[in-house]
Amino acid sequence: MELLAEKQKTQVLIHFATHGILDDIRGLGSAIALAPSGKDNGLLTAEEIFDLKLNAELVVISACNTGKGRITGDGVIGLSRSLMNAGVPSVVVSLWSVPDTSTTTLMKEFYQDLEQKKLDKAQALQKAMQTMIQKDFSPYDWAAFTLIGEP
């Protein structure tokens, strides 16, 4: 019974620290840049993600413009929507171009708060942002990130 309880506590997290490509015309062409191989160009598009079945509690894309997409009557069509359609209940994405150094600092704080302080995802992101303020980072450097979905 203890082993089952331990398994239930384990969260699957996926973190992409890379470049994001915005397609605000179609939305589904937005992509996460990965390493190309063979005939594959290395771009993981929202369209490719849309029909996947992912078993992750959280996907973080620490890249530029990953929360943006095509605005329709049904909402924003892009990476975050595709990930949620693939079964991910919570996604952290950015709403503008983000600097590498401050993004690294924010993400370290976020994961430390998520793991050590037993906060939920929304509380951990909020706490990490408060730490960025205390460390005198400009809001431009950290405020682009938002949590979409379940806290």
If you had to describe this structure to a student in words, what would you say it looks like?
The protein has 6 helices and 9 strands; from the N terminus they run αββββαβββαβαααβ. It is α/β, with parallel strands linked by helices. The strands form 3 sheets. Strands 1-5-8-9 form a 4-stranded mixed sheet, with helices on both faces. The longest helix has 17 residues, at 100-116. α4 (100-116) packs across α5. It has one domain (12-149): Rossmann fold (3-Layer(aba) Sandwich).
SSE order, as H and E?
HEEEEHEEEHEHHHE
Query: How many whole angstroms does the radius of gyration measure?
Result: 16 Å
Number of domains: 1
What fold name goes in the CATH topology slot?
Answer: Rossmann fold
Bulk shape: globular
Short recap of the structure:
This protein is an alpha/beta fold and 151 residues long. Helix content is 36%, strand content 23%.
Set out the fold topology.
Blueprint: H1 2-9, E1 13-16, E2 20-21, E3 31-33, E4 43-45, H2 46-50, E5 58-61, E6 69-72, E7 75-78, H3 79-85, E8 90-94, H4 100-116, H5 121-134, H6 139-142, E9 145-149
Helix pairs in contact: 4-5
Question: Which keywords apply here?
Answer:
151 residues, alpha/beta, Rossmann fold, four-stranded mixed sheet, three-stranded antiparallel sheet, 9 strands, globular, disordered N terminus
